[in-house]
Structure formats: C-alpha cells, structure tokens
Amino acid sequence: MSQALAAELGRIVGPRWVRTRPSELTAYEADGLPAHASRPALAVLPGTRTELIAVIRLLHVAAVPFVARGAGTGLSGGALAAPDAVLVVLTRLNRILHLDPARRRAVVEPGVVNARLSDAALPHGLYYAPDPSSQSACTLGGNVAENAGGPHCLKYGVTTNHVVALEVLLPDGQVVRLGSRSGESWGPDLVGLFVGSEGMFGIATEITLRLEPLPASVRTLLAAFPSIRAASEAVSGIIAAGIVPAAMEMMDQACVRAVEASIYAAGYPADAAAVLLVEVDGAPGAVQAEADQVEALLLRHRATEVRRADTPAERVRLWQGRKKAFGAMGRIAPDLAVQDAVVPRSALPDILDQVAAIAARYDLRVANVFHAGDGNLHPNISFDGRDPAIVARVRAANHDIMHACLAVGGSITGEHGVGSDKLEYMPDAFDAETLGAMRAVRRVFDPSSRANPGKVLPNHACREWRRGAVA
Amino acid sequence: MNPGVLDRLRALLGTAAVSRDPDGVPRAVPDSVDALAATLRLVDEAGWRVRLEGHGSWVPPDARADLALTTRGLDRIVAVHPADLVATVEGGVPMDALQRRLAVDGMWLPLDPPGRPERTIGSVVATATAGALRAGFGPVRDHVLGCTAVTGDGRVIRPGGTVVKNVAGYDLTKLQVGGFGAFGVLTTLHLRLRARPAADITLLARAPRDHLTSAARDLADAGASFSALELFSPTVAADADWMLAARCTGSAAGVAGDRAQLLDTTGLAWTELDRDRAHAFWHLVTHAGSGAAVTLRLGVLAPGLDELLDLVGQQLDEGLIWAGASHGGLRWAGDASPDQLRTLRNLAAAREVPLTLERAPWATRQAVGHFGAYREGVGPLVAQLREVFDPSGRLVVAMDGVDS
C-alpha cells in the first residue's frame, strides 16, 4: 500500500492516528479468537464522524478495501484485515450523543463501550439489555455488526431487538439514515437487514438504541445437578411452565472445575455434573413467586442443591463464576478454541453427549458453558496451539461439532457471527441459492465488495444472481 | 393475454388449481413451494405481471395484473415442536387455524393482528401488521426465525433457521417481514412460540382521551409493563368514551402484581373482564376496522401520542383508532383520499413519524404507496433490492407512491 495513501489519511485524522509500523499493527492482527490472524496494511483511527466519512470517501476513490473494527473482542475472526486492506478503528468515536429517558432511547457513536451505555442510563432507571460477556470492553458498533447476544437475551432479545435506527456510511462514502426512533421503518426493514451484516454493508456511524427500565426486583438461583440431562430437562420444564427467566445459564463439570481452580472461584459445587443459573426479574411480588416456582421445578428435576441470591452482593457472587468462565478456561492451556452453535433446546442433552464423544475421539479437553434457555452452546476446547498436530485435531473436532449441531436443525452461530471462522460451514448451513441471494444483497450496499472482504460468504458456494442496477 | 401460458399453467398445476377471480383475472393456487416457484418461473418467462394474495381479506385483491397468485393452497402446519416452542407453517395457513392447533399443545403465537380471523400468517408477516400484544411480545419481526421465500423470477431462498437464536448469514428474513411481497412470496415460516400463560386477564377503563394517555404515562414512569396497554377510540370500543385496555399475562403471581400496579398507579375506574368476555372484547376491537377501505399505521412513541392523535383527528377523523399507550404505534382505519394520506404522511414525517399504508384500494395504494417519505439515499437501496428479488418487476406491489 502506498505511502501516499497513508499520508493522505494522516492529513484527515492527524498523522499520529495512522499506524503503519509492524510493531504498531501487531495489536490489530487478531480479534478475540487468535486462531485467525492477519496484519493490515495500515490502521487509521478517525476521531470524529466527519473524519470517518472523509476516510471512507478517500478509500472509495482509491478503490482500497477496508475493515471496520471496534474493540477487537469479536470471536469469529471477523474484524481482520488482509495485507491489502485498511483497518478502520472506531474506538475514538465513543460519544453517547443523546439520552432520551422519556422515550427510552439512546443515540450513540459506534465506539461506545456496551457497559458504558448502561452506566449512563442508570441514573434514569434504565439500562441497555444485551450483555455479551465482553460487555466491559466490546463496542456497540461491533455489537450491531455481529448482532451480539448475551446471557440476558433469553428474555430481552439480542442486539437486533434493540436497534431502532441507524445512520450508515456506505462503502462509497454516501450516508443514509435507516429506521426511526419508534422502531417503525420508513420502508422495508433495512435496519433489521443491516444488523448482523458483519461490517460488509458499511459502517454504522450513529446508532439509536432502545433502553429498558431496570427491573424492580431480581432473584438469582443456582442449582447443582447429577447430570447434564437432568439440568436440561429442568430448563425445558421452566420454559414449559410459561416462565421466561431473564437468563438461564449452564456450566458443565469441566467448566465449573476450571472456574473453581482459578482466582475467580465462586464457591460453585465442583462435584456437580452440571450447574444451572436461573435469574427471574420483574415486579417484586411476582418475582418472589416465580423464584419459588423455579426452585420447585429445579428440585422436581432432581437438583441436588439450590442456592438463592436475594441481595445484589449475593447475585454478583453467583454470577462471578459464569461471567469469568472464559477467562478461567483460558488459564488451563495456552490456547482456547471458543465455539458458538445453537441447537433446539430439546436436543441439548444429546448434543452434549455428542460433544463429549467428539472430544474423546480427538483426545481433547472440552468444557461447556452455554445459554441453556435458547440452546446456544459454547463448547470450548483448551489446547496447545504450538503443536500443529493438536491444532489439526481441534479443527477436526470443531468441524464434527458444527455438523452435529446442523444435523439436529441447529445453527453454526448464535451470537459470535460467521466472520472467517465459520466461513467453511456456510455451504452446509445454506443452499447455493440462498448464499447467492446474500451476496447479491451485499452488492446492493457494497457494489465493489470492499467492506470487510472475504468474510461470511464463501464465494465459490454462492450461485450467481442477476445483478441489480448498481452505481 | 397469451392463452398458451394458461394452458401451460394448467399442465403444471392441474386444471383445478387454475381458475379466474371475480374480475376475470386468472388465479393460480399452487399447493407446494416447488409448484409456486415453477409458476413464477413460467409467468416470468411469459412477461406476466403477478399480484400476490392470501385469502384476499386484508390487502384487497384488486391490483392490475395478468395473474393472481394465492398462497391459500399452502395451508399446512408442517411441524410443531412444543418442547422447543417453535413451529414451521406454510404461508397460507389461516391465523385462527394456527392458533387452534398451537393451543392443543399449550402454546400460542402472541400476535393479534387486525383483520378477519382467517387471514393468512403469510399476509400478517408480509405486511408486518401486529396488534395490541406488540407491547409485551414485540413486533411481527420478533416472532419469525426464518422463512422460505420465492422471488419474482421463481428462485427459492431459505434464510434464517428454526432455532431461536441465530446469526448465521445476513438476516434476509427481516427484509421479507413487512416487505409487502415486493421481495418475494412467503411460502414457509419458522415461528417462535410461547407457552400459553397460566393467567390472562383484561381490565378496561373508560375516560376522556387525555385522562387515559396521562394514566399510561404514570404507568410508564412507575416502570409497569403489560402484555398490552392499548387505547381505543369510542367507535372501536363501541362505547361513548375512549377506552384503555390492559392485558396482563403470565404466572398467577405476576398477573396479580400487574393488576395491583394498574389499580394503585392510575386512579382510573377499571373493570375486569372474565375470560369469555375478554375474548369477545379483543375479538371485537381487533376486527372493528375490517370493513374500512383504508388502514394505516404511524410509528409514534407514547410521548408523542397525544399530538399525533390530534393530527390524525384533524387530517382524517377520530373514527377507528387503535394506539399503543405504553409502547406507541397508532393504527387508523376509514376512508381517505390519496391527497389526505400524502398530507398526513408529510406532516408525520416532519415529526419523525413514518406512515405505512397497510391497505387501501389499488388506486390509492398506487398513488400513495405502502411506504414513502424515504430518507435521502434509501430509495435507491430499496429499488436495487427489489431488482435483486424481482429482476423483471413481475410482482405488482405499490411500494412507493407515484409521486414519492
């Protein structure tokens, strides 16, 4: 890439916000999934919306591909730029532009950190519901690109359920406004189409989000089970009773032991085959009664122990192990393959048996922590990436896990996105016609395919569609 | 009209599946996704223009076209999974039949759209017409996990999936929900369901309109939320006054808590309906506008509701109005000219409120469009997306007005 381009970018954002030296670019080689790495030609960090628009217009004129990146906490190798591409880092666009408590809306720039929005909304009795595990670091722009989830999405929905309007900078530098603050669109639901497009339709420069009132009361229960199957049946029993908990999270024994052996030890029962966290929230009287009902259901489904947290401090303690599970597992071995897949809730016990069998077949250690309420699995494999033979076994095991999930009608990703990591499974998840339609839609937003090229869609597997009239 | 095409269509679908509608327009009733796709490929080659219909009870089946293509032959409930609270249904399944089937397994689809009970699920999804339950259960898009859609040139796409959480690939399903069929025909839908609530109560309060909107604001300030909190004009409520209806669903304790909050917070005189009367009430208000020629919705949030209600009263009338007192959204039904609709759309747009024309006679739809008042740069995106999914423009859908 030419030095002239770097100089021109420097004139827009200031030379100190253009990174070209290999030592500076190392930080941008990978996201939260180190199995995929690629060093960009350069990284540019615009500080204002105006600078960002000027950067994208310059890249359009120069016909240079680009990749938008937030905090780099993604888990799909999604925000990686090839050596011929510019990485556009959005972390300096971190202003909360408007908080509207009466309408329960917030307007933010893409680099605002997820948890910061809830902090800002707190004095108004409001919060932002989607809570990915990385919420203290991940940005809302990244959440929009990936349609991020989190434990509390069981009741409150994922990112797409909370984005009502967007200002989008298209890859040709044009700015369009999609949606309205009410959530009703001015035409077809282009906001819904944009959310989860993994940075391939353009960059969200302004995001209007729905805020939720803080629940008046919250109760958290932790139950130990003698088997994953028993815990899974308890999950189904709670849902079938018409209760929609705010969260239902499960950890298997390997995960619990990893947590308890770490500095994050939360006092979880380490001899249990599965630990289930259930949280209910709402009006105080109702929550008390629902917590009682949940406890009875847990015991009826053979829970050997149920703990209840009624105060915020107790809740934090019960949640600590779950929230730090990835960190704890990361300490077991040099590398951690974090997986993300979804199965119908009723298939959970069988799939977890299969995951265990797959791990045994490849002689790998797998620990499961997952959003049990919506069947979103995270089987995580701890391994030593310095050994190519082990890496090959991890790849093979992941392949088998994905196909096992697809075989029961599941999905290859529930909240992490396809990115680079799941690209190879897309032809197994969608037929060539559907993939072709996706590519054709992408070309509407990005006719020259310069925004985050090479992600999500395996070109060879897409059937060609007649191309719409493009600029 | 090319009779050869009709013969080929009969050969394709069977003689009984090709008839003529009351206006003499040929009507095709394919009974499978493949047959519907083959139909569209055939008429695409012939250069015919196609209008889409479900049961023809919501958007009038009156668009000028060479062929009426109805989904009413696609009326199978393909799969119901009570343990996973999901179902797969064909687009032509009537809403009432679907709810009856789900009830057998203790489930429901918490969608209460306006229109006749036999309205198809495909029509509800394609037009994104939600009812009062959107306050508690979200808009139509939140209930749809994936779909099968057939494009204007007969291609079959299957975006999304059957699980409740899924971010694989672009969310093309969102484009189909509320797309009015401009991006294809919805032949199969994967739906997210709920367990039927243990308790389900409805309370009504009658008062002048501003008393009711004020009470709704008090409830919002108190952090209360209900499955529905809907405001009805006197004509809809068949009452002398405006009416506010609260529907509380969930566990017995949860519903008792909602009821207490409603009574404690508002100071209104509430009447609780028993189950039968509640059922009859919701049926009455949901279908009150079925005979009206024009139905539209306005994307307004609750704080702007009073102003919008005044605006609608001034520009149209205060006849048939439904409004979300907690989560916003306003629906109006009646008679309105294209000029009136354009004026209201512009006035609403100035307040950042989109107006969607849900249904109207073809001449009005064509003049005003389901949508309009696009923001800068959005119109070309919509036009190009239509070209992707209907490259030769076979599907007759009045997306945008002739003047927008």
Describe this structure in words.
The complex is a heterodimer of chains A (471) and B (404). By secondary structure, chain A is an alpha+beta fold. Helices cover 34% and strands 20% of the residues of chain A. In chain A, 58% of the residues are buried. By secondary structure, chain B is α+β, with helices and mostly antiparallel strands. In chain B, 34% of the residues lie in helices and 23% in strands. Chain B is built from 14 helices and 19 strands. Chain B has helices at 3-13, 33-46, 95-104, 121-127, 134-137, 172-176, 209-221, 234-237, 252-266, 275-286, 305-315, 338-350, 362-368, 378-389, and strands at 18-20, 26-28, 50-53, 67-70, 77-81, 86-90, 107-108, 144-150, 156-157, 185-192, 194-195, 199-207, 228-232, 242-250, 270-273, 294-298, 320-324, 330-334, 355-359. In chain B, strands 15-12-14-13-17-18-16-19 form an 8-stranded antiparallel β-sheet. Chain B has a 5-stranded antiparallel β-sheet with strand order 5-6-10-8-9. In chain B, strand 8 and strand 9 form a beta hairpin. In chain B, helix 1 runs antiparallel to helix 2 (33-46) and helix 12 (338-350) packs parallel to helix 13. The model of chain B has no long low-confidence stretch (mean pLDDT 95). The chains are: A alpha+beta (471), B alpha+beta (404). The interface between A and B is large, with 95 and 89 residues.
